[in-house]
Design goal:
The complex is a heterotetramer of chains A (367), B (316), C (393) and D (179). Chain C is of the alpha+beta class and 393 residues long. Chain C is built from 15 helices and ten strands. In chain C, strands 3-4-5 form a three-stranded antiparallel beta sheet. Chain C has a three-stranded antiparallel beta sheet with strand order 8-9-10. In chain C, strand 9 (335-343) and strand 10 form a beta hairpin. Chain D has 179 residues and is an alpha/beta fold. Classes of the chains: A mainly alpha (367), B alpha+beta (316), C alpha+beta (393), D alpha/beta (179). Chains B and C meet through strand 3 and helix 3 of B and helix 8, strand 8, strand 9 and strand 10 of C.
Chain lengths: 367, 316, 393, 179
């Protein structure tokens, strides 16, 4: 494995946004990148969800707002900022106002470390994976807080369910991520991508593989756990509309509700991006196939501008592919029951992921 | 139990059923009626629970399915309660019927919820609709169908519909109110007979009454032809309570006819130029010349006219 | 263990909601609090306005009290102010998903009392329409039950078929939901040209698409996980409550008016009654789904039997039922619908009692929900198929 | 909110804001009776009002912009409808769908039916019919969207509402004005 040189104490690979000698310009560029990612990609994901759901349900989805209905979510956003902001009289007002922000900011912060292409990231932390998983878990605090502060029984039950769900699914999620880290030998997300570019199985030398092939079980566990953590259907008990109206979001209106909604879509994108990085080879087109513009000696780690553009598109396409899978699950499945969900986690996913970790660790040590 | 109609060939005929019930109930059974295929057994109030128990437990009868329970207004004698039972094994159906004790003032009937679970809500409904009390029912209140603070027992015949008192039937004519000869059946309720739970209804009824007070009595007159317009009744002094319903309705019909004639005259006079006045004739002609259909032209001309009117109002 | 008997009522000052009262049982080591949750009257799960108050211990339902009457429109009183022909326009609105089947009972009752001869063709047409209406109703519940369990897609597929069938029925009756096609003595007007051909085509298509529903809903693992063993109903309780229709058939009792007391021409054809075994939510849904297939079988038989001839008989100018009472029971999509029609010889009924299937069926809900989990409570609520207007009238 | 209900916004901003409201009508279906079925029919594949941006995924009133009252309103239900309407955040719109919601419909003489939802909440569009066809609802929605595109949020929040649209009676006129 190539040894990467650190530029700072924490960051490893340099970002292409580190231009010039100044401090201000790179920071501004990075903020722009993160905010751009945060506001645009979830909208694309949401539009994809609308359209895919429509097609799978024998209808067309939105068509009137903008070309092919592409501005539907923009219209939603414009609408939400005009709505009246209602805080229930019995609500715990500071907490009620704080909750959406508490849910939203972590979702925003995760975008800091997600690599979209060679050098296209805000920062490459040595503990990137740890950081990403730790930060995503904070969102649920906002949800719990919102559920409690709303002074609504449906919200309360929804918030508690969300908490229970997080505890149950954080464990398999993290164990699977550790398994990948063991295989890659690093916690840096860029490092994991690079490790996949050079990964081969013993006996199949010269035949490059992504981690999804040896780790198909791990990928499945991570996918299920990610959906549960995002409370996407079929694990949407915290907002199950037929039981809890809108769960923890029941009392939220206008911009605060929009923040929760954006958190959900951003969560879909960040979780998909993590899966792309951990299992699907990051910005590589296919295993063992060089991206056009990245034919240099350093492989995927240094590309010309065309190569970078292609790499970013490849990453986004993979993310959208995973979003598509999540939407598909939403269309196809009814909701699970809370106890069934817990049972799946503790009796199936946790033992399975532990066994997987043990297996991979032993193999890594032995080989 | 699951064998439906397993004992159909051994099912008791109505006569045999009557014989069996008379044997067990004695004088409790008053009489039986078989009409249109419905076998009704009239029982004394005291034998009501016993009859229901018998119907369920007697192996020959085996009425295992509870079908229905409801009240019927029995005019001045009070109220009847009917329970319909069905036997899945024999395919027989029986209607037990009893007259409530207590007349119209305090009708009561023993509860059969201990015998058939399904009687629970049915009895609550009967209480809600007729005010028949069921001693032995676990919890008869609160009112099951109507609003909790509803006053009156809606299905009693002396409960009249306030809306019918407040405004005339909006259709062409009211078939239910006339008999074959066109005479009004005496069923003219008064405002305030059935105060609704909401002031809204009451206010609406009063408003309607202010607009259409009951007409003054003016000798009977025959006027049977139906107009296709709902008629408004002209104002008149308040009615005399001694006047019978038939006469009042007669008078109302007459007043309606007059109003109708007046309205028709107005229509004939004012219709022509009214329609034209609301169009912008220039726009209309222009659009017709452009080859637009008459409907579109009319609509656009109307819009242009109204716009012009508004502009005029704005200037003023 | 005397500590467990003690009860302490606590009203925390910062409790969520104004009316939450925690009741702490036991000695305080492991306190549990009961919460009463009011679902409805406007709640996504109730498809209509139906309220149910649940006493919750965590997610466990300790007791359930349905509150009905939000859709009470006073049909029985209004019927006393309308004549025998106008009643049809009332009756097809109480169970708005099965308008045609509702009308049938009134028409049969009035005909029996007037001793009217109904032409054969009219009777077969009525059967055909009633069976199509039954399918319409069941399709709606397939969609809405799946929706309650969190699957949004089946609703869209159910409405694909519903639109076709509604279009078919509209071509003959002129109505999409409320047909008012029956009149005493027959049906309003004969079928349009090509109706039977179109009907046969739609029957074929629906039969082919029936497998979609089995795959999409019944065969879905999560659906089975959510419904098998949930809310079982014993046979004797079902009968004692007067439960009918798919809910009764799911317990294994084949009590169906079309078989046990055939009306119209149901005696001349084979009627299959799909049965369940345990009476749980899965069985109820299974029966509902397979009744669609059974109805399609009936429709195909009707196509073969349909005679020519007149479709209605001449009515007197004034329909006046003679004095007396009649009880007509027909098999509605949701269960047995009974009309008790008592006449005093006038132009309007003296008493018109509707025994609606949903009213009886919903009585089972408190029994079924005892001890269920909150999500199961929703599953039970949806599986006792009811229409709110049919409960409250 | 603060600013929008105080000052008249400049025209381009107003246009964009109105456009946003027009195409994002999250719809809370107050399904009361038969008409609710036709409402669902209007949301499914054949009629599909989701393509117009009417999203029927608002499960509660807090997230809804449009309240469709479809069906018979009874006296027992009326307080709940009023309360739900009040729970909705401004700006909010109401479509009264069907004869019962408009005026009581076939139950005009009943002792337990409220004679029209407009007795308790203000209505923007009346869709007549018993029940109206799904196409009629689409018509009502488009009429409402035209009105939203041309309205002033300031007036709306200040309670200066325009006269309600009654489909069939003056819907074409409303469209003319909007065009």
């Amino acid at each position: 494995m190539t040894v990467l040189t650190s530029t700072t104490a924490l960051a490893q690979a340099p970002s292409i946004l580190d231009v010039g000698d100044g401090v201000v310009l790179p920071i501004l560029l990075k903020v722009a990148l993160v905010l751009g990612l945060f506001f645009v990609v979830p909208l694309v994901g949401g539009y994809l969800e609308h359209k895919v759901m429509g097609r799978m349900q024998n209808r067309r989805g939105p068509v009137e707002a903008g070309p092919f209905g592409s501005l539907q979510l923009v219209a939603d956003g414009i609408k939400f900022i005009q709505k009246e902001d209602i805080i229930p009289r019995a609500a715990d007002k500071p907490m009620f106002a704080l909750a959406p922000g508490l849910a939203l900011v972590p979702a925003l912060l995760v975008f800091l470390v997600i690599p979209l292409g060679p050098g296209v990231f805000a920062v490459d932390l040595e503990l990137g994976l740890f950081y990403a998983l730790a930060i995503t878990s904070i969102s649920v605090l906002g949800i719990l807080l919102g559920g409690w502060a709303s002074a609504n029984k449906f919200s309360l039950i929804g918030g508690l369910r969300a908490g229970a769900q997080l505890i149950a699914y954080e464990l398999p999620l993290i164990i699977t991520a550790i398994t990948v880290a063991v295989m890659a030998g690093t916690l840096s997300l860029v490092g994991i991508v690079e490790a996949q570019a050079n990964f081969t199985l013993p006996g199949l030398e010269g035949f490059n593989l992504w981690f999804v092939f040896p780790q198909i079980v791990g990928f499945a566990i991570f996918f299920v756990a990610a959906m549960a953590e995002l409370s996407r259907p079929p694990f949407d008990m915290p907002i199950g509309d037929s039981e809890l109206v809108f769960g923890y979001m029941t009392e939220y209106t206008g911009i605060k509700f929009a923040m929760f909604l954006l958190t959900e879509y951003a969560g879909m994108i960040t979780m998909s991006a993590l899966m792309v990085v951990l299992f699907l080879g990051g910005w590589q087109i296919l295993p063992g196939v060089a991206t056009p513009g990245c034919e240099g000696a350093a492989g995927i780690m240094s590309c010309d501008p065309i190569g970078i553009a292609i790499s970013v598109l490849v990453t986004l396409a993979k993310i959208m592919g995973l979003v598509f899978l999540m939407v598909w699950a939403r269309v196809a499945y009814p909701r699970l029951r809370e106890d069934q969900l817990q049972r799946i986690s503790w009796l199936v996913l946790v033992p399975l992921s532990l066994a997987n970790l043990a297996f991979v660790t032993i193999l890594t040590v032995v080989l | 139990m699951s064998d439906v109609l397993a004992r159909r060939d051994r099912a008791l005929s109505p006569e045999e059923t009557e014989e069996l019930l008379r044997d067990r109930l004695g004088d409790g059974l008053q009489r039986t009626v078989l009409e249109y295929g419905v076998f009704t057994v009239w029982v004394e109030q005291d034998a009501w629970v016993q009859a229901a128990t018998l119907c369920r437990d007697e192996p020959l009868l085996a009425y295992d399915m509870f079908d229905n329970l409801f009240g019927i207004d029995a005019r001045e004698e009070g109220f009847d309660v009917v329970a319909v039972l069905y036997s899945t094994s024999t395919g027989n159906r029986i209607a037990l019927r009893t007259r409530c004790a207590g007349g119209r003032d305090e009708p009561t009937c023993p509860s059969i919820t201990d015998i058939y679970r399904g009687a629970d809500w049915m009895e609550r409904e009967t209480w809600d609709m007729f005010g028949v009390d069921f001693p032995g029912h676990p919890q008869i209140g609160p009112r099951i169908l109507t609003v909790e603070n509803f006053e009156g027992w809606p299905l009693r015949k002396d409960f009249h519909l306030a809306s019918r008192a407040a405004k005339p039937w909006p259709g062409v004519k009211e078939p239910a109110e006339l008999d074959e000869d066109g005479n009004v059946i005496e069923r003219v309720p008064h405002i305030g007979d059935a105060p609704g739970p909401y002031d809204l209804d009451k206010a609406m009824a009063e408003q309607a009454q202010a607009m259409n007070p009951r007409p003054e009595l003016d000798g009977p007159e025959d006027d049977d032809d139906a107009d296709d317009e709902p008629a408004e009744v002209e104002a008149g002094p308040d009615d005399d309570p001694t006047v019978s319903g038939a006469e009042k309705a007669e008078a109302r019909r007459k007043a309606q006819a007059e109003a109708r004639a007046k309205k028709a005259a107005e229509r004939a006079g004012g219709d022509g130029d009214e329609g034209a006045a609301q169009l912008d004739q220039d726009v209309y002609d222009q659009l017709i010349a452009e080859g637009k259909s008459e409907r579109i032209a009319r609509s656009k001309a109307k819009a242009a006219y109204i716009k012009a009117q508004r502009a005029k109002e704005g200037d003023a | 263990m005397s500590d467990l008997e003690t009860t302490e009522r606590v009203l925390p000052s910062n409790a969520p909601g104004e009316d939450v009262a925690f009741e702490i049982l036991g000695d305080g080591d492991f306190p549990t609090a009961e919460m009463s949750l009011s679902i409805g009257p406007a709640h996504p799960a109730t498809h209509g306005v139906f309220r149910i108050v649940l006493d919750l211990d965590g997610e466990r339902v300790r007791g359930a009290r349905p509150v009905i009457g939000y859709m009470h429109r006073g049909f029985e009183k209004l019927a006393e102010y309308r004549d025998y022909r106008q009643i049809a326009a009332l009756t097809n609105r109480h169970d708005w998903l099965s308008g045609f089947c509702n009308e049938l009972g009134v028409a049969i009752a009035v005909e029996s009392m007037l001793e009217l001869e109904v032409p054969d063709r009219a009777q077969w047409i009525r059967m055909l329409m009633a069976e199509w209406n039954r399918i319409l109703n069941h399709l709606m519940f397939i969609g809405s039950y799946a929706l309650e369990l969190g699957a949004i897609t089946p609703m869209f597929y159910a409405f694909r078929e519903r639109e076709d069938i509604q279009h078919l029925m509209e071509s003959a009756t002129g109505g999409r939901l409320h047909f008012t096609y029956n009149q005493p003595g027959g049906v309003k007007i004969d079928l349009p040209k090509g109706f039977l051909k179109r009907s046969a085509e739609i029957s074929k298509v629906t039969r082919e698409r029936f497998d979609d529903y089995v795959d999409l809903v019944l065969g879905n693992e999560i659906f089975q996980g959510r419904t098998v063993g949930v809310g079982p109903l014993p046979q004797d309780v079902a009968l004692s409550l007067g439960i009918t229709g798919p809910t009764l058939h799911a317990t294994g009792i084949a009590e169906d008016s079309r078989v046990t007391e055939p009306y119209l021409k149901y005696g001349d054809i084979d009627v299959e009654v799909p049965l369940g075994e345990n009476g749980d939510a899965f069985d109820r849904f299974y029966v509902l789904l397979h009744r669609i297939r059974a109805s399609l079988d009936i429709i195909d038989q009707i196509h073969d039997h349909m005679p020519a001839g007149p479709v209605n008989s001449k009515l007197p100018k004034m329909v006046k039922a003679p004095e007396g009472a009649i009880y007509v029971r027909t098999e509605n999509p949701l269960g047995q619908l009974g009309y008790w029609l008592e006449s005093d010889g006038g132009r309007t009924p003296w008493r018109f009692k509707m025994r609606t299937p949903s009213f009886s069926n919903v009585q089972a809900i408190p029994y079924l929900m005892q001890g269920a989990l909150l999500p199961d409570a929703i599953s039970i609520l949806g599986s006792v198929f009811f229409v709110v207007g049919d409960i409250d009238r | 909110m603060g600013l929008m209900d105080q000052v008249e916004l400049p025209q381009p901003v107003k246009y964009v804001f109105n456009w946003g409201r027009k195409y994002s009508l999250w719809c809370f279906n107050f399904g009361l009776a038969c008409c609710a079925i036709e409402f669902i029919a209007a949301s499914t594949s054949r009629h599909d009002f989701i393509r117009h941006g009417v999203i029927p995924f608002a499960h509660g009133p807090r997230q809804a912009d449009l309240l469709v009252v479809s069906g018979t309103l009874t006296d027992k239900m009326a307080p709940a409808v009023k309360r739900l309407y009040e729970e909705m955040p401004e700006p909010k719109y109401v479509i009264s769908f069907g004869s019962c919601a408009n005026c009581g419909g076939p139950y005009w003489d009943s002792y337990s039916v409220t004679k029209g939802v407009d007795q308790i909440i203000p209505v923007d569009v009346y869709v007549p019919g018993c029940p109206p066809r799904p196409e009629a609802l689409l018509d009502g929605i488009i009429a409402l969207q035209h009105r939203i595109q041309n309205e002033s949020l300031k007036d709306r929040i200040a309670g200066r509402r325009q006269d309600p649209i009654t489909l069939g009676a003056d819907a074409p006129l409303a469209l003319e004005e909007g065009a």
